[in-house]
């Protein structure tokens, strides 16, 4: 980190600005807006300084080192390299912070690009290395931060003490503010300038917060790539106090969870059930009844072979409020990253998702229906049953030459795609690692042409024939 980001309170503090041109004028306006007692050193001033006349002290002479005496910091904004260098050297000798405009090597502090939503301030800087990139980032942030943000902060300050008295714990207050800030109602009232109604709305929310119990949000984390986490999913994991997560949730997504949240692994992997489902259910109820905001974070989509419905049934029976944030399921994410469309006019008119991991006493899949042509078959958790799947599909009429693919660790940097024929499924599965997704159907032929994610199909093992 080249510079420590910090916000300096300049109200009433002495600041020296050297220069009288357009650049100096921009810095003067900024420093005056911060409330500094500005002294400006320049033989002459541009006409634009008339707009801020009377708000600074002008010394109409060339810079001398003694001008720095008693100042908090200095800014050099002249077109003379010699003068700027003298300001820098003299300020350093006095232990003052100094900025030489457009010269990071001679600056002990820099002016960041600022998004002003006073009292909310956002600053972006590249340390002088990429000013155009910083400008683009600032423009993007400007579009993301609503104009009423400053008003929201001002209103929050007015009722902050009331919130402290009504909500005696830090957790309760934090939950109240997070819910309030996420409300479109409050933002709409402030945008329209309806301050009394906005304050009344906050008071009502404060009263309700005193009676609010815990809650659970079931969130789908997507297939692995953190960029596929939905915006609403991101908001929920950054507001959670407790996160119960599965093993398939990637470390990159876990890094996005708020830093003070309690992380509890309830992960499951084929052949290694680290936490029984009953224990996961018990933890969800226990944390919620303790008044915590709980996120149950699952890989993919929580309602797609993720037992999300079962967990919500437990919460419903316990009277615990819950909500659901869907995620991108592996069948959609992994196949897209592998360049395998689930449907295609020439190859498949439908897609069927099944799990290869069934309950011991559960009913068997409808193999005749699954073996039908003109459809894509996507099998979750099918590696261990790959030989059975291969035998049953062929036995019920699916051609042994049907293209198949196994997508390993889909959408992640370690994604690997194996391709072959249905009669080779068990052999390919023996070389794959969990988590993997099996795709059966003619759409697999498109992988070689459409794969875009930096990897291509690996050669089939044991000299197997590559797809035509």
UniProtKB/TrEMBL annotation:
Phosphoserine, modified sites: 126
Gene Ontology biological-process annotations: cobalamin biosynthetic process; methylation; siroheme biosynthetic process
Domain Sirohaem synthase dimerisation, first and last residues per copy: 148-206
NCBIfam families: cobA_cysG_Cterm (TIGR01469), cysG_Nterm (TIGR01470), PRK06136.1 (NF004790), PRK10637.1 (NF007922)
Entry-linked PANTHER family: SIROHEME SYNTHASE, SIROHEME SYNTHASE-RELATED
Functional note: Then it catalyzes the NAD-dependent ring dehydrogenation of precorrin-2 to yield sirohydrochlorin. Finally, it catalyzes the ferrochelation of sirohydrochlorin to yield siroheme.
Name used for this protein in its record: Siroheme synthase
Source species: Aeromonas simiae
Gene it is expressed from: cobA
